[in-house]
Design brief:
This protein has 218 residues and is α/β, with parallel strands linked by helices. The protein is 28% helix and 17% strand. It has a single domain, classed as 3-Layer(aba) Sandwich (Rossmann fold). One of its GO terms (cellular component) is cytoplasm.
């Protein structure tokens, strides 16, 4: 069998002093620390046999992907399927656990955690992300590819790959800033799922303690 690895890279830290749930909103770029994280990832994995670097169209993902694409002398690709999940609370200083149950206008969006009712259904996220993974595997067979996306899409893809339920506590996601979730295939068959933090030494303590982002807040 031919061994192929598709890495899902979460973007680095975003400049967001007001704590806005930015989701798919334009204009949210990496902080200075986030830029260092992107460079660190390129330093740590830039010598691997990576033949494609593809990113979500959002600025923070494009910025995270650029140093690695440069080191590998690759043209950076863009794939809409890697975009952040949709969320009705986009643009607001809001996250689950921050008093949402005390906000009556929000209640109508929170009735079904299985969907979830406040945003893009988990199954839809999983479907588009997995399609992007399979396309990357086929296009880079025998090599490695890096897909730069966002925390929730990466985590949902991992749950799908491991045959786990989509409903989960966001605080338990193993998907910190600039982390890699690595899917290893033998031929067309997924054989293992790995996780690593090539920029782990740059992760702020607050993000290690509270390792979650509800639709893009960090």
């Amino acid at each position: 069998m031919t061994r192929t690895i598709v890495h899902l890279l979460r973007h680095g830290e975003v400049e967001n002093p007001e704590g806005i749930l930015y989701g798919r909103l334009p204009g949210y770029r990496l902080s200075a620390l986030g830029e260092r994280m992107a460079e660190r990832v390129a330093e740590r994995i830039g010598q691997r046999d990576i033949t494609a670097v593809v990113a979500s169209p959002l600025e923070r993902a494009q910025q995270t992907a650029t140093p690695l694409a440069t080191v590998r002398a690759l043209e950076l690709g863009t794939d809409e399927r890697l975009i952040e999940s949709g969320n009705v609370f986009e643009g607001k200083p809001f996250a689950l656990g921050d008093g949402v149950l005390l906000n009556p206008p929000a209640w109508r969006y929170l009735w079904n955690p299985f969907k979830p009712s406040w945003g893009e259904p988990y199954r839809e996220v999983a479907h588009r992300m997995w399609a992007a993974v399979l396309d990357a595997r086929a296009a880079n067979e025998g090599h490695e590819a890096v897909l730069v996306s966002h925390q929730l899409p990466v985590w949902i893809t991992r749950l799908l790959a491991e045959g786990r339920r989509f409903v989960h506590n966001p605080r338990t996601r193993q998907c910190t800033l600039a982390s890699l979730t690595s899917l290893t295939f033998d031929g067309e068959h997924l054989v293992s799922v790995g996780y690593s933090e090539p920029a782990g030494d740059l992760i702020p303590a607050k993000d290690r303690k509270q390792n979650f982002s509800s639709g893009g807040k960090r």
